[in-house]
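Hey L., structure's done. Input below.
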Amino acid sequence: MTSAARELSGQWAVVTGGSKGIGLGVAEALVADGANVVLVARGASDLDTAAEGLRAAAADGQQVRTVAADTGDPASLEVLFDRLERELPSLNVYVANAGFGIITPLLDISLDEWNQQLALNLTGTFLGVQWAARWMAKTDPEANRAILVVSSIRAVGARPGRLTYSATKSALNQLVRVAALELAEYGIRVNALSPGITATPMALERNPEVYAQMTANVPLGRSGAPEDMGAAARYLCSPAARFVTGANLVVDGGESLH
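Output:
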């Protein structure tokens, strides 16, 4: 890319769940656009591997950092943001990507499974967005400040076995709308990205049969790739989307059209 095209040069971005899959795809796109990126995930080893690849693609002076944290744990999130505010000069972009889903029929969902998904997918996202927004609200109102929540097309429609996951993602969509309305006065933009079936390690390794079945139904003839999600995230987080807030960008190859 030319330097003129690197709209996020000098800006700082934090990506949760950034060591693999969609989160890593988003981080790659932000690095390509010139951002300094902090990857957040639970596994230190995966973080190191991801950061090594990103640093190899980064320009001179561009930083890629890592922080091991559990964004489904409120105490861990508080420690994370305390550290980030001490160590980073600013926060321009916060991507709340960390989340997971388990395919379980309604009659078999345990309270523990329900609570685990709500803790990471919904409560952890809410708290991360809140911490990020409080920090951004204290900074330059003319600066690019964007919060991106990774939702899912499972937030709409209905598929067997996805009750808990769908409920959390549906709640995130409304979180984004209300947060966008409240934070507009501070110049902070809040948007959602809703992927369809995507070729992530979770999809390929944990549920290969489900992945194949769902991919076969995508009108564009393939599953999404992390770089597809990264390209969309890059737009929503950049000054190019300076008049976009409260939006939900669906990136699914037409899957949700069925």
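The helical segments are 21-32, 44-57, 74-87, 111-137, 163-183, 201-206, 208-215, 226-237. The chain has a mean pLDDT of 95.

-- N.
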